[in-house]
Design goal:
The structure holds two protein chains of two kinds. Chain A is mainly alpha-helical. Chain A has seven helices and three strands. The chains are: A mainly alpha, B mainly alpha. The interface between A and B is medium-sized, with 19 and 26 residues.
Chain lengths: 120, 213
């Protein structure tokens, strides 16, 4: 999976991660890696500005949390707007992915079309 | 923090001089990431810092990525403030027009004629500059040029207002007891101050665009 293919979907992926539970930046990157089985190993320089962008769009919010005996951390959580946006984007993505699959898999499902098209 | 991180942040902060709050945000994010590696992977601080700098990448590109992330909110805020200031200055202009019932009308001296030309030219330049800004914004062209042309338009209006005020002051002796003159002068200078603030606001927007480009 190339970074180019991921571009445009990063916001949705980050919203989905934060929809399960609030998390700090480091944990978001870790979850992204784990949930994608290591395929989305994105650099911090991509993820943190994206989190900041989502915050300025008011889709997520952040607050400082100091765990017992630890250092304070900025924890991100989804806002009501963010949850609504995520639901909409999930629907759009499923519809888009189904359409792309239908086109890409058309030849695989019905190879006769391909054979007819290449016949002289 | 070690010198490695400090040098990195110094480069980031140089690009983010236009928005110091954002520079603080980058510092927080980097510190948090370093701490995450130290706490959860038990890496030595120096190694964690080296890895984090590698992950965040080129300091200038990172700073621009943060600027782009904050751009919509920054643009909206500046444009809203500018629009408010312009609306207030238009209100002042309207007030002056309503009160100025021919008091500064007929021109008597050559130097006042020149002021009339400056007044008209400033207004014409403002209209042209505003049209240019609109055209560039519509064509989705270089974002940096929009606030510049808008600034030029506001400067044109300010020039026109200044010439109009000078005409008023030169056309006849002011009557300190007449309320109209106080309204004319007060609204005129308020309008100039509002326009100057608008130019500052648009200049800030242009600086932001330049840092982001």
């Amino acid at each position: 999976m190339t970074a180019e293919m991921l571009k445009g979907h990063l916001d949705n992926i980050l919203l989905a991660i934060l929809s399960s539970a609030p998390a700090h930046g480091y944990a978001v990157i870790e979850q992204l890696r784990q949930r994608s089985a290591g395929r989305f190993d994105l650099p911090e320089g991509t993820v943190y500005p994206a989190l900041h962008r989502l915050e300025t769009l008011e889709l997520i919010d952040s607050s400082w949390v100091t765990p017992e005996g630890g250092r304070r951390r900025r924890v991100y959580h989804l806002t009501a707007n963010g949850r609504e946006a995520l639901n909409q984007r999930r629907g759009s993505w499923r519809s888009f992915a189904d359409a792309v699959s239908a086109v890409l898999d058309a030849d695989a499902v019905n190879p006769v079309h391909k054979a007819e098209a290449s016949a002289p | 923090m070690a010198a490695l991180i400090d040098n990195y942040l110094a480069t980031v902060e140089a690009v983010l001089a236009v928005d110091p709050r954002l520079a603080g945000r980058v510092r927080d994010d980097i510190e948090e990431q370093v701490q995450g590696l130290v706490d959860e992977r038990q890496l030595p601080v120096a190694e964690a810092e080296r890895r984090v700098i590698g992950g965040f990448g080129d300091a200038r590109l990172l700073a621009r990525a943060y600027l782009r992330a904050a751009w919509p909110a920054h643009f909206q805020r500046n444009m809203l403030v500018s629009a408010f200031l312009i609306a207030m200055s238009l209100l002042c202009m309207r007030l002056r027009t309503a009160v100025d019932n021919g008091i500064s009308g007929p021109l008597v001296e050559g130097r006042i004629d020149i002021l009339l030309i400056v007044d008209a030219a400033g207004f014409a330049a403002a209209v042209i500059a505003a049209a240019m800004a609109w055209r560039i914004a519509r064509s989705d062209g270089d974002a940096l040029r929009v606030p510049r042309w808008l600034g030029a338009a506001v400067a044109g209006v300010a020039l026109s207002t200044a010439a109009s005020l000078a005409r008023l002051l030169l056309a006849r002796p002011l009557n300190p007891e007449g309320w109209q003159d106080w309204i004319l002068l007060g609204s005129g200078f308020t309008e100039l101050a509002l326009l100057a603030l608008t130019i500052v606001c648009l200049h800030q927007l242009a600086r932001y665009c330049r840092a982001m480009a």
